[in-house]
């Protein structure tokens, strides 16, 4: 089955990026968020991204306008999902919130619709268990910033069908991404490797080994990473980083995944990174 109609649920930084690349791949996109102002902000941001790309010669004005015209705000989950071939949820990284949403989507979507989660670490098999279509539930994990990063980590739950995998992988390729197949283990591959590194960088700061700038400088200049782990944590969101470390810790029961207390206290303080104006760095 080829995907033409995509619903994106959640208009934060990930949902916005996914809506943009889906529209640029030629799909009709419906964007829904429980907070409607987030959809307006997201559409304005996509508009800016698309016109920025025209100015840089990445695509033509006409292509930008066509992509923009394919994205529409939806007023309800029902409106977003009822005739979608694929629904991608990109809401908060919380098992209960995602299960509640997936159960609702299962009831509004048609029988053929594929339900994908952009979860960065939660078990896809467990998410699928609240639906009546576990063969059509899959993880479609985009990287931030979505329009730039070339990977989609595609996670197969235990019951995900070959057809669902092939359909989603084909769409990822149409979006200009490389789809890599991964089994359903805590943190998958990306965050099982990335997040302990970020957590260790936070411990290094917590223990006073070096300043945030020096820690990031070591990793940028010494390891050729495009940005240091603390700056990257700020980009991802410290609440998301903490949620992923907790999933690894719970999922493996191994103390090597314990979240750094400093990460936890920053999240409690509301210092969530770029999106809140302050994390390990200040963005005000
Ligand atoms: N949205 C769209 N495009 C963006 C962007 C954004 N938020 N931020 C940067 N870009 C684009 C810029 O427009 C620019 O495009 P051109 O080359 O066409 O002009 C390009 O990216 C480079 O940007 P800059 O020159 O401003 O800055 P940079 O060279 O430092 O690159 C970066 C910025 C792409 C973010 C780079 O630092 C990078 O690759 N960082 C690492 C990002 C990363 O590791 N992401 C994965 C995070 S993990 C994750 O997402 C999964 C998870 O579950 C936690």
From TrEMBL:
One of its GO terms (biological process) is butyrate metabolic process. Residues 187-283 form the 3-hydroxyacyl-CoA dehydrogenase C-terminal domain. Transmembrane segments: none annotated. Pathway: Lipid metabolism; butanoate metabolism. Signal peptide: none annotated. Belongs to the 3-hydroxyacyl-CoA dehydrogenase family. This is 3-hydroxybutyryl-CoA dehydrogenase. It comes from Paenibacillus taihuensis.
């Amino acid at each position: 089955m080829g995907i033409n109609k995509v619903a994106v649920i959640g208009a934060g930084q990930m949902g916005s990026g996914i809506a943009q690349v889906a529209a640029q791949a030629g799909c009709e996109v419906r964007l829904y968020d429980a907070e409607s102002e987030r959809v307006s902000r997201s559409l304005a941001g996509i508009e800016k991204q698309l016109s920025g790309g025209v100015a840089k010669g990445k695509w033509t004005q006409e292509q930008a306008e066509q992509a923009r015209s394919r994205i529409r705000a939806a007023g309800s989950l029902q409106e977003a999902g009822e005739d979608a071939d694929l629904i991608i949820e990109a809401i908060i990284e919380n098992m209960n919130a995602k299960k509640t949403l997936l159960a609702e989507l299962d009831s509004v979507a048609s029988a053929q619709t594929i339900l994908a989660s952009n979860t960065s670490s939660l078990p896809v098999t467990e998410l699928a268990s609240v639906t009546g279509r576990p063969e059509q539930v899959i993880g479609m994990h985009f990287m931030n910033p979505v329009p730039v990063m070339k990977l989609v980590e595609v996670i197969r739950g235990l019951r995900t069908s070959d057809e669902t995998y092939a359909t989603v992988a084909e769409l990822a390729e149409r979006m200009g991404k490389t789809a890599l197949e991964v089994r359903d283990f805590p943190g998958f591959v990306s965050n099982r490797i990335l997040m302990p590194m970020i957590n260790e960088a936070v411990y290094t700061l917590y223990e006073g080994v070096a300043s945030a700038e020096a820690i990031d400088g070591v990793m940028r200049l010494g390891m050729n990473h495009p940005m240091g782990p603390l700056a990257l944590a700020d980009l991802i969101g410290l609440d998301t980083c903490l949620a992923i470390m907790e999933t690894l810790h719970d999922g493996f029961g191994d103390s090597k995944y314990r979240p750094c207390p400093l990460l936890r206290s920053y999240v409690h303080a509301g210092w969530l990174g770029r999106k809140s104006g302050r994390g390990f760095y200040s963005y005000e």
